[in-house]
Amino acid sequence: MSKALYIITIVGSGIVALAFVVLAMDPKTTEMAMALPIPILIALIFHLIFVYKFWKSIQDGHPRTTPGKAVGFLFIPFFNIYWLFQIYPGFATDYNRYIQEKGIPAKPLSQGLLAAMVILILISIPVVNWVVQGMAISKICDAVNAIKFGKSVAG
After folding, report:
1. Residue 155 has what pLDDT?
2. Distances (CA, A) of 7 to 1, 95, 142
């Protein structure tokens, strides 16, 4: 998994969306608000692809969900808030068990980092959220690449 691709598209789209919101507050640039859905849609698409791919990486173990359910359940209103905790900190739990069972020499993922990311997404603290989200995406990409390529890069 490419760290740069997911960090730039998911985190970068959030930054661009905030810039559109700020520009839309000025009466001279209100028409900029019409373009706001574009970076949000880009971030959403890449987020869904990202979730699908990282859950797919541990499917021959005993994961709590399938990649399709991981993505699909995000579309259920209100339940998706609970589900974010299953797909992020839950992935850390399942990933850590997977590397232990398979004897993969990779560092475990931090459940705390992934839980913090979900909490910051939900309470929406822009700059802190982007930093933590970038760190979490980086660690997940390292973890998936450790499985895929057998290198100890996660952690």
Report:
1. 44
2. 11, 20, 13
* pLDDT recorded at residue 52: 97
Q: Which pTM does this prediction carry?
A: 0.84
**pLDDT at position 89:** 96
Rounded CA-CA distance 70/148 in Å is: 20
Per-residue pLDDT, averaged over 45-62, amounts to 92
* Number of independent structural domains in the chain: 1
Range of the domain at 131: 3-149
> By C-alpha distance, which of 146, 151, 83, 140 is closest to 111?
140
Tokens (6 digits) for 34: 């019409």
Tell whether 155 is covered by a domain.
Answer: no
Cβ contacts of residue 88 below 8 Å, gap of 6+? 114, 115, 117, 118, 136
Residue type, 49: I
In a domain, 154, yes or no: no
Tokens of 95: 């990933």
The SS3 assignment for 42 reads helix
Q: Which pLDDT score is estimated for 151?
A: 56
In a domain, 24, yes or no: yes
Q: pLDDT-derived band of residue 94, with 50, 70 and 90 as boundaries? A: very high
Is there a domain that residue 97 lies in?
A: yes
